[in-house]
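Continuing from the previous page...

OK, I double-checked the sequence for D-galactose 1-dehydrogenase against my notes and this is the correct one:
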Amino acid sequence: MAIRIGIVGLGKIARDQHVPVIEASPDFTLAAVASRSGGLPDLPYYSDIGDMLAGDDGLDAVALCQPPQVRYDAARAAILAGKHVFLEKPPGATLSEVKSLADLAQAHGVTLFASWHSRYASGVAAAKAWLAERTIRSVAVEWKEDVRVWHPGQAWIWEPGGLGVFDPGINAMSIVTHIMPRPFFLLDGTLSFPENRGAPIAADLTFRDDSGVPITAAFDWRQTGPQTWDISVDTVDGALVLSKGGSVLTIAGELQETAPEAEYRGLYDRFAGLVARGESDVDVSPLRHVADAYLRGARVVVEPFED
Ligand code: NAP
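Thanks. Re-ran it with the corrected sequence; updated structure tokens here:
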């Protein structure tokens, strides 16, 4: 029987991806929406999640698509109501709140899924498989985009807990943590904060893995013109390059064939499988690297940013 799911926070990602992917999935039925600004035609609508959980829509699960700063309370309420929970990325505003949710989900026998959509980009699985058997020399991540194009008017993203440039940067970290065969950790970094904002507009980070392989990451929201979402891995057998956010894979100069984009279908297939098996998947490693950057990185103040 299909999982009856309610969406919370009907913003950009809910409308662009969650709604169409749920509606096309045989595993799910979109059964309700909770959002302050309005719902969807022909669906039960609530202005907040508390009312939705108290409703009689027979919900089995919720997908939480609000900004990370407000997701904990919603997730806690849903778990206490016995619902399975799909968390948009990042899974929370702090590592400790995500741990608390994971423990709560386990205690209540429901599935908690911390989703990382970029891991389902079409080149990522093949990149992971190829790298598993290679000797890696270095990794360079370049994730540079125009914030005015991708996040117009999103006040929350510039506030503490909104992650700033780490909102896209954590997508890169979700891929790197997934494809690298060995764990890695931050050595140092610089976070550039506009003087009028509570989150960084750029970050330059240096990591190394536990065998000494250097990993650099450059995140920048000030890039106009062509956008860059590239991960380059130098190995003794040649270079592997994941570009366009992980959807294009080149190995030793040869473009690899990849399937069409289906990141959110992959996420919902995974969520359905977790629910069916009574499991959770709460990998916080991308968020941990961001937290480390805030802990260990130097902070510099740069010119103010206006939308
Ligand atoms: P968004 O367009 O700003 O939508 C978020 C929605 O959450 C809002 O429409 C709002 O709906 C609701 N909300 C509840 N409390 C809020 C608060 N205090 N401040 C602002 N909105 C609040 O954001 P989004 O781009 O969809 O991103 C939401 C989450 O998905 C983020 O964690 C983001 O990292 C992730 N994500 C986004 C994308 C993308 O391409 N945009 C891609 C992947 C993942 P109501 O006002 O109706 O309640």
